Amino acid sequence: MLAFILRRLLQSLIVMLAVAFIAFLMFRFVGDPVEGMMGVDARLADREALRDRLGLNDPFYMQFWTFVKNAARGEFGISYRLQQPVTQLILSRLPATIELAVVSASLALIVGVTLGVFTAIHGRLPPSSRETLTALAAIILPALALWFLGRGLLWSFGAAALIFVSTAFWAKSFFSQAVMAVSLVGVSLPTFLIGIGLIFVFAVELKLLPSFGRGQTVELWKGWSTGFLTKSGLLSLILPAVTLSLFQMTLIMRLVRAEMQEVLRSDYIRFARARGLPESTINFRHALKNTMVPVITITGLQLGSIIAFAIITETVFNWPGVGSLFVNSVQAVDVPVMAAYLLFVALVFVVINLIVDLLYYLVDPRLRVDGRSGRA
Amino acid sequence: MKIQRFAGLAALLASTLMASSAMAETLRWARASDALTLDPHSQNQGVTHNFAHHIYETLVDRAVDGSLTPRLATEWYVKEDDPNVWVFKLRHDVKFHDGADFTAEDVVFSLDRARSENSNMRQLHSAIASVAAVDDHTVEVTMTGPSPLYPNNLTNTFVMDKGWSEAHSLQSVQDYAAGEDNYAVRNANGTGPYILESREVDVRSVLKRNEAHWAETKPQVTEIIYLPIAENATRIAALLSGEVDLVQDVPVQDIERLKNTAGLKVETGPENRIIYFGYRMDDKPLKSSNVADKNPIADPRVREAMHLAIDREAIKRVVMRGNSLPAGVAMPPFVHGWTPELDAFPAPDPERAKALLAEAGYPDGFSVTLDTPNNRYVNDEAISQAVVGMLGRIGIKVTLASRPVAQHSPLITGDNTDFYLLGWGVPTFDSAYIFNDLIHSRNGHFGAYNPSGYADPALDAKIEGLATEIDVEKRDADIAEIWAQVQRDRVLLPIHNQLLAYAMKDNLTLAVHPENQPLMTMVTYGQ
Amino acid sequence: MTETDAQTPVLSVRDLVVDFPLRRGNFRALHGVSFDIAPGEVLGVVGESGAGKSMTGAAVIGLLTPPGRITSGEVYLQGQRIDQLPEAEMVKLRGKRIGMVMQDPLTSLNPLFTVGQQLIETIRQHLPLSEAEARARAVSLLEEAGIPRAAERIDSYPHQFSGGMRQRVVIALAIAADPELVIADEPTSALDVSVQAQVIKVLKKLCESRGAAIMLITHDMGVIAQIADRILVMNAGRIVESGPVGQVIRHPREPYTIKLIDSIPTLNRESEAPVPAEAATPESAQDAYVRVENLTRDFSLGGGGSFFGRLFGGKDKIFRAVNDVSFSIRRGETYGLVGESGSGKSTCAKMIAGLIPPSSGRIFVDGADVWSAEGAASRRRNVQMIFQDPYASLNPRWRVGSIVAEPIKALKLTSNRSEIEDRVADLLRKVRLDPVAMRKYPHEFSGGQRQRIAIARALSTQPAFIVCDEPTSALDVSVQAQVLDLMSGLQEEYGLTYLLISHNLAVIRQMANDVGVMRQGVLEESGPVDEIFDHPKAEYTRMLLDAVPDLDKVA
Amino acid sequence: MTEAPPPEAPVEAAAPARGFWARFWDSDVFWSYRHNPVAVVSSLVALTLILAAVFAPWIAPHDPFNPATLQLMDGFTPPGEAAMSGTVYRFGTDDQGRDLLSTILYGSRVSLFVGFAATLFSMTLGVSLGLFAGYRGGLADTIIMRVADVQLSFPAILIALLIFGVAQGVIPPNKQESMAIWVLILAIGLANWAQFARTVRGAAMVERQKDYVSAARIMGVPGPAIAFKHVLPNVLGPVLVIATISLALAIIEEATLSYLGVGVPPTQPSLGTLIRIGQRFLFSGEWWILFFPALMLILLALSVNLLGDWLRDALNPKLRQ
């Protein structure tokens, strides 16, 4: 076990180094940082001088070595754009991103797993055409009625959505098939479009939710400011969290469904039936736990990528997290921030991977006992 | 991070206490980007200066018409016996936010700091030989030579408190290339009409009215919440949903919609910025052209054809939705040296343009790549795109290369472009500012944004002479001559001057500032 | 109903019809099956794959896989009709009144729950017991099922038990709530012979002590002979014959039953011993066509083997799969290698065929070391292999013609297309398949046919030596007989030399001249087949022979 | 043998081998296609869109990629209304006076080309690496899969951004526009190979244990030949499924990259570029500039995704009946 963790740590180190290298390689090409730093009046000679001072004229390997050396000490230098220590900058932005990521990840996980299980259990039989027609009629007719009554499209859509959710109770296989199809819309739309659409509907038209930022924040501890404790903070979280989670939610749901269907076909589930266990025990005790084993890895990786994935969501909602910091830095060629951000993402990846491995140990007794490395 | 906690509490308190007071007016001010730093001498950048103007003050200020007005200096003149010395008389009874008195020592300190090694403002003060305080309210600035226009360079140079700065070791500007941190980046102590309450970079800054400010009339806005929102759509959405009161960077296409929205209004006005196209016009072949043996643009007839191909009115009407002033000269009307004659432009004449091309030996046109930024100027990419079409119609096949400005600018400063779009603001309101960087041939001190290859030693000498010429009439004549030559040789291909638009709640009034540096002190409430 | 007895049958099935509405039309799996099981009776249901025997069991307990359904007929449990019960009622029946044991103990238990958790949840589902009481009952059940130190092991996970032990757990689970009937679907097919016998005994003992009847579904007549009271022979969804075990096995009436029983190889030599090849003088090993000398093979169990492992000083765990094995095969003869799973016999086969290199030791075929550079070329021509699973040994995406021709092309024997085609047709005829087969894909053939295609492929390079790794263990007995016949025929015709790997002692006895018995990588004993089978020297061999269920042991 | 398999094909000899089309029509996959209305509809939609894109030069009323023919003054004409020049544009025009119908046809051509080429590229790369890793095992496997893991945890967009950034630096500025589309393909392709590699590697590890591979090895068929001739055909099913989904993904990624400001030149816009341009006019009332390209993108991605969904089920042997 210890050896295993050590081995993983070493691998992680290699991963971090590789990412650092790639990041570094890329930054040489994204643009000239001097441009943003000097302002338009600067003379060519001054530009050259600054390049020299920044070490941009040093040989490549020297620059990389300096970078790694400093990064190992948690030193990423001073942001070219904002002229503050990068570490401090990233730390001050971290709470926003982590809160957003945690909420979206939980949302994706809870809704994804629930829907995945639901569709796996109830989606085995295609809905009868009668069920389909009743359900469709129940959804479309009230919506049309509302529209004709002049309540507007949003009301109609709202009503349709509500009734659609209610089909989960009375038209289960219709609901699961429909969820499968509708969920594809979530992955067929670019995230930024979803975000802008949500802003348009919920902020501009309905004026229900804030369109940008984090609302009021409260400082908890050592600069960790949270939006969880204020109403505006919580309201501000809704749209970005939904936008960010939609994609992962769809993936998790489909993954859980596929794995669960596989598990439900296995011998031990058949045997559990033969033992006379009730359906609920079979689905939620036996099948679900077995489903989680393969789901953990992929989900872990997916959730890890939420933080990096947030760059687009954060941009659209002006969410003050590390993602929007990164995008702003890319535009200004703020190399120290970009490098630190990429390493940060790599770090998240490495940590999540370790957690996933440990979770494996917890969930799957086959790994716990013989203590050998590798996943079955 | 202490500020933040404090600010949270303060904001809470403030909002509860002041809710009843009719005088208290909070303004939520959104624009596309944040000030880069609070250090007033670190960056020479518009947004940063704009923010700093609320906290710090300059010696002289510029009025909307471009003229200089007193601010911390009440009067200034060239010393009678020495044309190289500028004398500034300072305002009395001015206090910094921390209560310290404003004196000549502070000005000396600030000017020295602004021209120190790491300051990005030092270019503006490169002609200074020394600065000295004569008495508590008089400062003498000795120049290396006659500098008649020097006060123009002072409109963005802010005065810091010497005592406060020394207490926080701020004598030199942050050398961030060396990894230094600096107190002034995140803290401010100025004499300005607003006091910094809290600041989260890129997120929000809160400013409170300075009740001890020297000005007689207090601004109506008692609190400013400054909110940078980078995405255009999100920024406009925030205004539409009532989450902000004022949006400074309004995309032209949204002006109509906002005007027609109940409760909102839009103010528009010209910006002191010219949008133009530049090209390589020396004899070396173009890098991106199918004509490999020579440079077609070097032929004046080709340049004329290109000018004739452009339909500025169409660009104004469609791309800019009417929000531009088409230009015939690469100089905003605010700038000293501008005349209506220079700014006249010919009606588009594609037929004549084609004939000229044929005459020059390119009956079938030629191909060239146009480099355009896509996130810098109002609809920059769309303008370029429209021009691609117009040039296409006379046979010049243009490939459009569109980049963020961070990648676009190096192409120009690094001589890596054949044909490009650029915008040029003129903070000094003087033609020399344009000539120095756009017209003068490139060397270590001039022509940083002139990749045209256009080089005329006589013209260069004339440009250099403008800086020290005291004889106003002679200088004006020189400027006119230079412009005449530039226009004759068609060194630049001007398109238009940008119009700025500010959108706000309709109970506010704020006029557009030509340098896009509006002061919230100017905001008035009521119809 | 025939109620001559005072007793009501535990299970009574009448005219059971099961249909599978498939897309190519309806497939009728059971065509009106009727039978009774008396209380405490053990009914053996036997038949080849596709006979419908498992289907009958699944239909009784109500666990037909969709879209299968009972179209008509009736099922009574203790006189109560159960085939039309709603699912909610059926759930209460399962486990409580009808228990079930499935084939594969490795997959029947949920790997993520301890044995105890699974037992306790089953017990508490059916009996009003507290957690502690259920646990006590679970322990005693495990003890009864013959699990040593049951009280400790109850908290172990399934993977910590061996296959045989797991099947005992499965049996314990099946009888946890004292059902009246236990349906055992091939309960021993996945187990080694030595374990098989014990598990059968446990099943019988547990059911006897509770008076539970058993419906024992199996393809193995031997197992039925061992414990069943009555036998039901099924074929193609119908009952062919039924009656007391002794009677049916000794005096089968129906032609199908007769054929079925005839095709079962037995340990007792009925026919002639396989004739040694012409020059069959028992010479020294020098003459041997295949010679295996001190063959050893180690496997690393990982952990320490990799680069990182070494970096952290992890110890390389070595597992010796084959340990110093030597034997030889004379030209034209068959050498049988027997052993249970994990004995290393397949590893031997793979080393000889050139699939995995030995750790030490040498293999000579026709005098050439097959693992030397020169030997490899001759090995490819001379050595071929036939595999166990006819479904996995043919590439499903290739046409049969290409499959059979592959060795010809790989060894560049000829590249003329029509010549290749002729040869393939010829080969297919040799294995008694229509040459049209070459245009089809493997999935269009049955298991026996596929194994013949595999043989045709093995023959296509005209090898002298064929390694046969369990060539018939995936096949039904009647098909097995055909394939074995074909192999013998080909051996005679072409003077082939075989290495026959099998866990089935009867098959070895029937086919081999010499035999080697392997156990845990070691060759326990080796010698002429009759000598070893009739006078086994090694304890292990004797145990193996004893464990084989034999029709002759029928009570 | 827990239960009887469905009846096997008629035994022995003489059933004639059927023709390709007959077998195709009767195959399980096509049967499930014929009986799945969602699959039929989505494939028809996808096919229509793809054909419309391919034949855009013959269908589209204008050539939006030729700037010389554009009427700037016709810009922002609403759908169905007469423009300044008197022309009526069915879907309206955009800010450059381009006919939107033509533009989305041409634009989806670009998007589809990028999508197909990127998918093909990532497929080739992923399948080769996956086969190599799965068939070879050992250190090569560890390294490849580790890289794939890392890659999977970085969103494709981020990776594509990085690659795009590097390409910007490597390619001389005046070549960048002509290379842009290839860089895009490379970037998206490189960002998506890991899914293929993982799947193929998993499948290859299963396949290489199969006896037909052993049989080929005994004959001395060399490793790469086994990997490609034997293993590859048997892992193509899941590859096809992933290819479908990653086609949709590539189209969306291209759009997102355009949104972030990297991508094809605006004079030859893809759907993504059109959406980026269009979203500027979301609040200003010119809804059609965003609406039609977005609709096209959704239809395209959704129909391809639905097809992939069906294919996944149809090719899953365990779901077959």
Provide structural commentary.
- The complex is a heterotetramer of chains A (376), B (527), C (555) and D (321).
- Chain B has 527 residues and is α+β, with helices and mostly antiparallel strands.
- Helix content of chain B is 30%, strand content 22%.
- Chain B has 16 helices and 19 strands.
- In chain B, a hairpin with a 5-residue loop joins strand 2 and strand 3.
- In chain C, the strands form four sheets. In chain C, strands 6-7-8-3-9-10 form a six-stranded mixed beta sheet, with helices on both faces. A six-stranded mixed beta sheet of chain C has the order 16-17-18-13-19-20, with helices on both faces. In chain C, strands 2-1-4-5 form a four-stranded antiparallel beta sheet, with helices on one face.
- Helix content of chain C is 37%, strand content 24%.
- Chain C has 21 helices and 20 strands.
- Chain D has 321 residues and is an all-alpha fold.
- Chain D contains twelve helices and no strands.
- In chain D, helix 6 (138-153) crosses helix 8.
- At the A-B interface, helix 2, helix 3, helix 9, helix 12 and helix 13 of A face helix 1, helix 6 and helix 13 of B.
Estimated share of beta-strand residues of chain B = 15-25%
What gap, in angstroms, lies between the N and C termini of chain B?
A: 40 Å
How would you classify the quaternary structure? heterotetramer
CATH class of chain D: Mainly Alpha
Largest interface: A-B, 61 and 62 residues
End-to-end distance of chain D: 16 Å
Question: What would CATH call the homologous superfamily of chain D?
Answer: MetI-like
Which regions of chain D contain 5 or more consecutive residues with pLDDT less than 50?
A: 1-15
Please indicate the percent range of residues of chain D in DSSP E strands (runs of 2 or more). under 5%
Q: Give the name of the CATH architecture of chain D.
A: Orthogonal Bundle
What is the overall pLDDT average of chain D? Answer: 81
| SSE string of chain D, helices as H and strands as E | HHHHHHHHHHHH
Q: What is the tally of helical segments of chain D?
A: 12
Backbone CA Rg of chain D: 24 Å
In CATH, what is the homologous superfamily of the largest domain in chain B? Answer: Dipeptide-binding Protein, Domain 3
Number of strands of chain D: 0
Report the CATH topology name of the largest domain in chain B: Dipeptide-binding Protein, domain 3
Structurally, the number of domains of chain D stands at 1
Secondary structural class of chain D? mainly alpha
Radius of gyration of chain B: 25 Å
